[in-house]
Amino acid sequence: MTVSGILRATRALPLSGKIGLALVLFWIVIAIVGPFIAPYPPGSFANEEVFAGASSQFWLGSDFLGRDVLSRLLSGARFTVGLSALAVAIAASIGTGIALTAAVGPRWVDELLSRSMDTLISIPSKIFALVLVAAFGSSLVLLTLIIAITYVPGNFRIARSLAVGLAQLDFVEVARARGEGRLYLALSEVLPNMIRPLFADIGLRFVFIVLLLSGLSFLGLGLQPPDADLGSLVRENTSGLAEGALAIMAPAAAIASLTVGVNLLIDAATQGKVQ
Amino acid sequence: MSGAASASAWRGPAKLVLKRTGLALVTLVLVSAVIFTISGLLPGDAAQELLGQGATPEQIAALRQEMGLDRPAVVRYFEWLRGIALGDPGQSLVANKPVAEIISERLPNTLTLAGLTTLFSVPIAFLIGIASAVSRGKGTDRALNIATLAMVALPEFLVATIAVLVFSVKLLWLPSITIVPQDPTLWEFLRAYAMPVMVLGVGVIAQLGRMIRAAIIAELDRPYVEMARLKGVSQRRLIFRHVLPNAVGPIVNAMALSLSYLFGGAIIVETIFSYPGLASLMVNAVTSRDMPLLQACAMLFCATYLLLVLIADTVAILANPRLRQG
Amino acid sequence: MPAPHVVVRNLAVTVRSSDGAPLRIVDDVSFNIQRGDVLALIGESGSGKTTIALALMGYARSGAQISGQIEVGSAAFDGKAGADLAAQRGHRITYVAQSAAAAFNPSRRLIEQVIEPALIHGTATSAEARAHAVELFAALALPNPETIGNRYPHELSGGQLQRLMAAMALITRPELVIFDEPTTALDVTTQVEVLQAFRKVVREQGATGVYVSHDLAVVAQMADQILVLNRGKVREQNAVRVVLETPEDDYTKTLLAAARPVVKAALPVAAVSKPLLSIDGICAGYGPVDRQGRAAHPVLTDVTLQIGRGAAVGVIGESGSGKSTVARVVAGLLAPTAGTVSLDGQPLGASVKDRSREELRRIQIVFQNADIALNPAHSVGDILGRVLRFYHGMQGHQAQARVAELLDLIRLPAGIADRRCSELSGGQKQRVNLARALAAEPDLILCDEVTSALDTVVREAILELLAELRRDLGVAYLFISHDIATVQALCDEIVVLYKGTRVESGARDAYAAPPFHPYTDLLISSVPELRTDWLSEVAAKHGAPFAHRPESADLCRFLPRCPVAVAGQCDVTLPPLRMMAAGNAVLCHRTEAELARDHM
């Protein structure tokens, strides 16, 4: 797509979609530059007062140890956005890859893969993630992989139903009759037609992953200190709940703005295409 | 329909439901193998873990034998599976109590919370779903769409935090943790549950409402709906007599998903409101690496999920004449 | 002259196009219908005929705006003439939809749906409506009129559902009935029965009718007046006979010409001893294959046919005849359970993976629906270029030049190579679909219903192109179609399939006059002719003496529908293959003399 094409598509979005796009872009930028623009090192005890309110020095106040909430939020966002994006990319690559194999492969391969994925999808994703965390722990790499694996079956299910539907269409039959190999069928005939609907699914899954990751961190099962994502920030500051501290509200609201933003954008983008 | 005819008419669906039940049981066994493999085999040695780094090899060997860890994995799996099937998933490593006992203490709490949330959210979800479907593309639909879209994406701890701030901290209406007194009056009971039910309900209402809308809209696009309109059928009759019976399948499936979420997914809500349910029990099991308890909880949640999906499938089969007679 | 029943003045229907600009899909349409008359709205897809019909009920599909004046009896669109049109829906004005299979609610019993209009509009009590429905079922020649209403839609055939839908439209004793292409989705042999039933009940009711169709021959049987539409505008309105015999408008003349396909100029194929392709005793089907080598759902039984170099062989049959399966077997997409396919005398592998690339190149397949036969993610150039690279190793400029040549061959501008197929019209897509097969430089093209989804005028052009390509390139066709007129226009030889068996084969001329196989006879006699008295002349069907017998693989498959079956032969053994004097082979127990005498 050309630059002008993207601009035109952007202008065509309804207001909610524009808001969503702005939020998503905002968080992408923050994830990239956040730590560089943070006013304080995220670990430094910058303020003597704990759970301080907003001030010109501390825009989002201080946390339960007197650290600058804004600085911690800026570095936490990188973990939340980066880790979730990586996990969703892994999940979608694996899930879609297996789905394409199932769609163009022999029947028994499809049966076997679908059966295994049906089994895995019968384990609710949160429960699956908890079992994996209990078994393997939650180092940065493991956590990413665990979250990715948790969402593979869901992506597989969507991608398989798309791919199998496409693989039965006449244009794939023609290519098959021509003598094309399975790899060509999967990558050149089927995959290009899956990208748009998959894009929506990947976006939704990204939202689920952000929520799962923050949820795990909130429970103390996710990212381990000194690393802290937005969910960890909420957890650290639960003692400030009774006073309605910014330290707990800000990171929670940050997560919400990210997930709501993605949702609004996908909804607007997919509706535009349907009509 | 005569008695004999109806008896034979039910044979088809009965066979289908039986087949689905068999399939669900097979899936459950496969799930158990996955859970056992991940949690029972991979993480190294439970005996080593229990005794810590200072233990001598002899101590570890003795404990391994006592725990039965020296036997082959397959034997241990089938014993564990047999225990689960008979309602005895073993001994908790941490609490030193039978897992069954711990779970049965908490199960009623989870069922109460899930039941109340269902009663609260399902009617609202239906209202939202139907209201947006019939006003598709108009103002009401767009507003509801944005609202539910946001509600699905909100992290539960944000909803819970705001609810606590508003209802407990500022207004002082509701307690910030959920403690149900002994022999509560109805009022005490409702007050205790109001906040967790509300917080859990937000996600369920939004998710289920959206799926109901999608199910109805998928039907509204079918030619029989236009035909019904051209017969002069009113909007109300169209939705309730023509569309909903055809949308039963996807709707009950959506409900099964939402209810299974209420059963096992209330992790954050139970933690925030210090509510002693099964989900927070499972989190404790993860934290303390209490594998027998963890496995039992995981199996319970998966079994519930499969059961709910099976019920949904059965309802969908009975609602569809084609499957009913198949 | 009494006041007309239906008056339409300056009707316009506007939709929003994709770029937001208003688009008139119906423009300045005016007509009257006298009480008791039937007016046909005829036109190709996009002519606005259905839109106009729906506007008569005050109904516009989502997003469309109706303007102008519509009056039906005492009701008007704007409500001025007493009652509102929309309130008449399903009561005084009723509708028969194109596909009854889709237009009935799948989860409700048919009788409930049929009597629903009467109950909603309070024209009858439930018991009265039920009784009336049973009368209508009987009048429409539905089997078991007393109980058929207790079934669900999926349990009945398309022709039966279409008649039930007519019963639903008549249950309120309406003044105006709108038929929207009610027989288009049906097989031609079913269409006759449904048309006869419709005509009978509409006349009995004395209702005014609007009959929407693309098929002039069908309309000639049903209507008194014809309104010819093109792109939302009226081209001509006149009495049926006048339009058919002395059309005034050029567009009407084009339509009429296209409705009478002429035999395309074809070379007489020299009788060669060695056929290009021969299919010998093919059996094929879907599902697991049992020990006797029969598929769980057999489709083809012992099908044999041969195609000479440069010949065009037509395969004709109704839905379920297995005609498309023949093409799939030849292409190697479905492995037969028995029999062989040979190319130039060399047996071909059962499926694609057992054939060499050269063998695959020589046989190309073209599917019916270009919308799903062309990958929407690729440009026209990509689609053709891939074939060139795959079979001929062509790349770069050489390939580009060849793509341009191919496009020229199918009469499309070279600039189209960069376009996506979604930007092309239906006819253009079908040409690209053909060009892809031509790119391989094949000896044989399998054409699977390639003209069925097209409007008549476009269909004519594609048939013309096919005939030309055959003449210029010497390519042979296996041409599969449900429409005998199309097949006759293009092919030198015709094979008739019924439920997967070849019941007749022979040269085109053999199909000009009897004797035929009884099924061929039924097929040919069911094609409506472009004259108003055809339907009345189609003899009332002789009953089939073995209608009660279930179809069996060990007997003639046509037995349950055959009007000339004889006891002691047809219900006992498989029929023999008889050679007729005209050179056609017929699979039947009856002799040539009997078949010539008993034809319909």
CATH topology of the largest domain in chain C: Rossmann fold
User: What count of helical segments of chain C does DSSP give?
Assistant: 20
Query: What multimeric state do the chains show?
Result: heterotrimer
Mean pLDDT of chain C: 88
Enumerate how many helices of chain A there are, as a single number.
11
Percent helix of chain C, as a range, is 25-40%
Helix/strand/pairing category of chain A: mainly alpha
Describe this structure in a few short sentences.
The complex is a heterotrimer of chains A (275), B (326) and C (600). By secondary structure, chain A is an all-alpha fold.
Properties at a glance:
heterotrimer; A: 275 residues; mainly alpha; B: 326 residues; MetI-like fold; 15 helices; disordered N terminus
Write a structural description:
The complex is a heterotrimer of chains A (275), B (326) and C (600). In chain A, 73% of the residues lie in helices and 0% in strands. Chain A is mainly alpha-helical and 275 residues long. In chain A, helix 3 packs antiparallel against helix 4 (107-121) and helix 4 (107-121) crosses helix 6. In chain A, 56% of the residues are buried. The model of chain A has no long low-confidence stretch (mean pLDDT 86). With 326 residues, chain B is mainly alpha-helical. Chain B has helices spanning 3-9, 11-41, 46-51, 57-67, 73-85, 99-134, 139-153, 156-170, 186-220, 223-230, 235-264, 267-272, 278-287, 291-319, 321-325. The radius of gyration of chain B is 24 Å and the shape is globular. Residues 1-5 of chain B have low confidence and may be disordered. Chain C has 3 domains: 6-259, P-loop containing nucleotide triphosphate hydrolases (Rossmann fold, 3-Layer(aba) Sandwich); 277-503, 3-Layer(aba) Sandwich (Rossmann fold), CATH 3.40.50; 518-599, no CATH class. Chain C contains 20 helices and 23 strands. An 8-stranded mixed sheet of chain C has the order 17-18-19-14-20-21-23-22, sandwiched between helices. Chains in contact: A-B, A-C, B-C. At the A-B interface, helix 4, helix 5, helix 9 and helix 11 of A face helix 2, helix 7, helix 8, helix 11 and helix 12 of B.
